[in-house]
Design a protein that fits this description.
Shape of chain B: elongated
Helix content of chain A: 25-40%
CATH superfamily of the domain at 37-113 in chain B: RNA polymerase II/Efflux pump adaptor protein, barrel-sandwich hybrid domain
CATH class of the largest domain in chain A: Alpha Beta
Strand content of chain A: 5-15%
Number of helices of chain B: 7
Order of helices and strands of chain B: HHEEEEEEEEHHHHH
Structural class of chain B: alpha+beta
Order of helices and strands of chain A: HEEEEHHEHHHEHEEEHEHEHHHEE
Largest sheet of chain A: 6 strands, mixed
Strand order of the largest sheet of chain B: 1-8-6-3
Number of helices of chain A: 12
Number of strands of chain B: 8
Strand content of chain B: 5-15%
CATH topology of the domain at 37-113 in chain B: OB fold (Dihydrolipoamide Acetyltransferase, E2P)
Distance between the termini of chain B: 90 Å
Oligomer: heterodimer
Largest sheet of chain B: 4 strands, antiparallel
CATH topology of the largest domain in chain A: Rossmann fold
Structural class of chain A: alpha/beta
Helix content of chain B: 10-25%
Largest interface: A-B, 37 and 39 residues
Number of domains of chain A: 2
CATH superfamily of the largest domain in chain A: Thiamin diphosphate (ThDP)-binding fold, Pyr/PP domains
Strand order of the largest sheet of chain A: 3-10-11-7-6-5
CATH class of the domain at 37-113 in chain B: Mainly Beta
Radius of gyration of chain A: 22 Å
Distance between the termini of chain A: 54 Å
Chain lengths: ~400, ~300
């Protein structure tokens, strides 16, 4: 069986004239010179940034603003630093248990946030730390939650699979279970008459789960404003996508649901596609499937070195040629929006912000024993008593 | 320079020294600015790892690396694992050299610096005591006695909930609630390890005569010791007697088999033994508490 793991087809079986998406982060071109940096300007995405299924691709002309690009750069760098800090804390044995990091996939989370409105809903699986912060959380809250302290967003009782904000529904542990819940949230939005979009994210490894297709069916049947987003980082734990899925074009798996494949390493393309998707579902066209082609540098989780199923050279190559933060840095410098020093200063600010949040989170105390009994039931609806961990441990409310 | 300064009055010399040093700072060539030094500590490559060894350093002091490059190979009890760098930088100083053994997780093994830093005089920082996660104040940490969590004096609630120091069985709980028993502790418990039984509650409520009700334990029959005669050891005469009687029996003509007289005699062998009225009564399985205790031990 182990030999099968190392068996990879010599050449990818791509038909001769099929278009393939490119995943470089620095292929967007400036249309004309920028006269006034305070006004929005137009850039043109690479023609192979999108692929569509049963719908039109978004236009390749995108309007961007200087301060928005700088904010996106700072956010991506902050998210990268936060994940690296979590990595270091895990290696120092302060974070225990599960820790799934999204280093390399920052363009998806930050691009999503900049393409949607605050009242839109997002639900994802356990690679959720950047989403949690972007959707209204704090870095200190996320780090403290991973450390298991009271300052955490779930008071330290949940960990990375239980982080919520009013518009972010977690943080879910079971693979693929968040997709039908996301369809339900979209149903609630439609039922309440809200003109919002719901984004239900899952990975390429979860795309073959049965309940995902059940959710697709219901969403299409009732025209729910749901966008199903597949974050295809090419590996489901240790299994490459070609070894797990017969159809690796995840954006076509919606059957009657139109789909859109996006270059998930270029944040301008990502954000533009998210805006397109939001417009699609809020105008009543039913659900939409999106696939972000992205890459994670680390392993599946902190227990996985990430080099047993792929070569280190591949990871280094992706890091050096397709890193989303470097790509945005190239755009900003090439288009004359900021100098290298200013961007380095943003890097330092991001690092300082994360370091300070980590220090504050470390100072927070561990949860109290009495908090074992709180937050299980809605206040006022508790049963008379609750059994604890041992026979003699009974708590009376 | 110094001698000139010491001859002047103290206050003026101070200002002169300060202004001179400022001028020195301005005039002298600036040494390269050193950014923050990052400490590389021994990482825990698995959650159960407590110490490891350095197999080999892949980068030399002063060599630069980029994020994702392998810096060092760590030997754990399970395997040799590569440690990758998180950021770009240069290796400033190696503190734990190749072949170090028993390096605790969290101990400093190297100092990393950023590109373009001056690493000529990196000092090993003194070992700082690791700040353990702060313990909450003692008064806020309530230690629950594991044996009696239910014996807290609570205000009477609207919903009557009986409490007992021992576990309450569901049937017992139901009777307590139905019978509106205010204090379950007043009822003596005759169950295993002092638990309340349904019979206890019924007897308390007056619905039963006793905790065991009308159940009567069967009297155990004490077996009468029968007189057993000790067999006398055989002497010579007795042995001879035995031999002769045995021989005589052999010499007697074999008895003709008797034909059975009645039908019942024929089938008598095949019928079950008639129940004799004097059969000893089979003792009932005793319902003593010790056997019940043995049955329930470890069950609840």
């Amino acid at each position: 069986m182990a030999s099968l793991a190392r068996f990879r087809p010599a050449a990818r079986r791509v038909p001769a004239f099929a278009r393939a998406i490119q995943t470089y982060a620095d292929t967007t071109q400036l249309q004309d010179t920028i006269e006034d940096q305070s006004k929005p300007f137009t850039v043109k995405l690479h023609e192979e940034s999108f692929r569509s299924y049963q719908c039109e691709t978004p236009s390749l002309e995108v309007e961007v603003k200087k301060d928005e690009l700088l904010k996106m750069y700072k956010d991506m760098q902050t998210m990268r630093r936060m994940e690296m800090a979590a990595d270091a804390l895990y290696k120092a044995k302060l974070i225990r248990g599960f820790c799934h990091l999204a280093i390399g996939q920052e363009a998806v989370s930050v691009g999503l946030e900049y393409g949607i409105k605050p009242e839109d809903r997002v639900i994802t699986a356990y690679r959720c730390h950047p989403f949690a912060v972007m959707r209204g959380g704090t870095i200190k809250g996320v780090i403290a939650e991973l450390l298991g302290r009271q300052a955490g967003m779930s008071h330290g009782k949940g960990g990375s699979m239980h982080i919520f904000t009013p518009s972010f529904f977690g943080g879910n542990g079971i693979v693929g279970a968040q997709v039908p819940i996301g369809a339900g949230i979209a149903f609630a939005q439609k039922y309440l008459g809200n003109k919002t979009a719901t984004f239900a994210l899952y990975g390429d490894g979860a795309s073959n789960q049965g309940q995902v297709f059940e959710a697709f069916n219901m969403a299409k049947l009732w025209d729910l404003p749901a966008v199903f987003v597949c974050e295809n980082n090419k590996y489901g734990m240790g299994t490459p996508a070609e070894r797990s899925s017969s159809n690796t074009e995840y954006f076509t798996r919606g059957d009657k649901i139109p789909g859109l494949q996006v270059n998930g390493m270029d944040i301008i393309a990502s954000r533009h596609a998210v805006q397109y998707a939001r417009k699609w579902v809020t105008e009543g066209n039913g659900p939409l499937l999106m696939e972000f082609v992205t890459y994670r540098y680390g392993g599946h989780s902190m227990s996985d070195p990430g080099t047993t199923y792929r070569t280190r050279e591949e990871v280094q190559r992706m890091r050096s040629t397709q890193d989303p933060i470097r790509g945005l840095q190239r755009y900003i410098e090439e288009w004359g929006l900021a100098t290298e020093q200013e961007l380095k200063q943003l890097d330092k600010d991001a690092k300082a912000e994360v370091d300070q949040a980590v220090e504050e989170a470390k100072q927070s105390p561990e949860p109290l024993i009495k908090d074992l009994w709180t937050d299980i039931y809605y206040k006022g609806t508790e049963p008379p008593f609750m059994r604890g961990r041992e026979r003699e441990e009974v708590h009376h409310y | 320079m110094a001698t000139v300064l010491t001859m002047r009055p103290a206050r003026q010399s101070m200002t002169l020294a300060r202004s001179l040093s400022r001028a020195q700072r301005r005039a002298l060539h600036q040494t390269r600015v050193r950014y923050a030094i990052t400490k590389l500590e021994m990482p825990a490559m698995s959650p159960t790892m407590t110490e490891g060894g350095i197999a080999s350093w892949k980068k030399a002091e002063g060599e630069s690396f980029s994020a994702g490059d392998v810096l060092v190979e760590i030997e754990t009890d399970k395997a040799t694992i590569d440690v990758e760098a998180q950021d770009d930088g240069i290796l400033g100083k190696i503190i734990a050299p190749d072949g170090s053994k028993n390096v605790q997780v969290g101990r400093l093994i190297a100092l990393l610096a950023e590109e373009g830093d001056d690493i000529s005089n990196l000092e090993v920082p003194k070992e700082e005591s690791k700040s353990a996660p702060p313990q909450p104040e003692p008064e806020t940490r309530v230690t629950q006695p594991p044996a009696t969590p239910a014996s807290q004096p609570t205000a009477p609630k609207a919903s009557h909930h009986p409490k007992h120091s021992k576990h309450l069985l569901p049937s017992v709980m139901r009777l307590l609630i139905e019978g509106n028993v205010a204090d379950a502790e007043a009822i003596p418990g005759t169950g295993v390890r002092g638990m309340l039984t349904k019979g206890d509650v019924l007897a308390y409520l007056g619905r039963a005569s006793s905790p065991m009700g009308t159940f009567k334990e069967a009297k155990k029959e004490v077996p009468v010791p029968q007189k057993v005669e000790e067999p006398k050891p055989l002497d010579g005469a007795a042995i001879r007697q035995l031999i002769v009687s045995g021989l005589a029996a052999k010499l007697k003509p074999a008895l003709a088999p008797k034909t059975p007289e009645t039908f019942d005699a024929i089938i008598a062998d095949y019928l079950p033994l008639p129940s004799s009225p004097k059969a000893a009564p089979i003792p009932m399985p005793s319902m003593k508490h010790d056997s019940t205790a043995r049955y329930f031990d470890g069950l609840l």
